[in-house]
Amino acid sequence: MTNEVMTIREMCDAFDVTPRTLRFYEAKELLFPIREGQKRLFTKRDRARLTLILRGKKFGFALEEIRQLLDLYKEEDHGEKQLRETLAAYHVKLAEMEAQKQALIAVMTDLEDEIAFVEGQIEGLKREG
To answer: Is 67 inside a domain boundary?
Structure first.
């Protein structure tokens, strides 16, 4: 699978995505398969881009953010600018997720306190009744 192309079915099987997903990413100009009539053939570049798209989605990046990072790739610098910008974006995303995690922990602590309070109220009613 080094340089050969893959059909839409092979891509779906390899990446566990639907044909609709691949067509959507193509329509959004994130993937650029070779078109032979109705047939789509995905290159090594498309496979690399799809890997990055799926990783970006997993990490919570919007498609436009992913596109901007993908578009930074240049062969002449061996993708160094893309890697540096991706790393910076990853750091920002991780900081955002950490803030969300801390906020969620605080809310969960409040909810645990409220549960304990209500359970205490119920126990008090049982003792009185």
So the answer is: no
Question: Amino acid identity, residue 82?
Answer: Q
The reply to whether 18 and 53 lie within a common domain is: yes
Largest CA distance in the chain: 80
Tell me, what CATH number does 27's domain have?
A: 1.10.1660.10
Final residue of a structural domain among 60, 84, 111: 60
Query: Tens digits of per-residue pLDDT, 1-19?
Result: 456 999 999 999 999 999 9
CA-to-CA distance for 122 and 127, rounded, in angstroms?
Answer: 9
Please name the amino acid found at residue 60.
G
SS3 content of the chain, % helix, strand, coil (to 5): 70, 5, 20
Q: Which of 75, 78, 69 is nearest to 51 (CA)?
A: 69
- pLDDT tens, residue by residue, 64-122: 999 999 999 998 999 999 999 999 999 999 999 999 999 999 999 999 999 999 999 99
CA distance 30 to 26: 6
Residue 128 has a pLDDT of 85
Q: What residues make up the domain containing 76?
A: 72-129
Q: Are residues 2 and 22 in the same domain?
A: yes
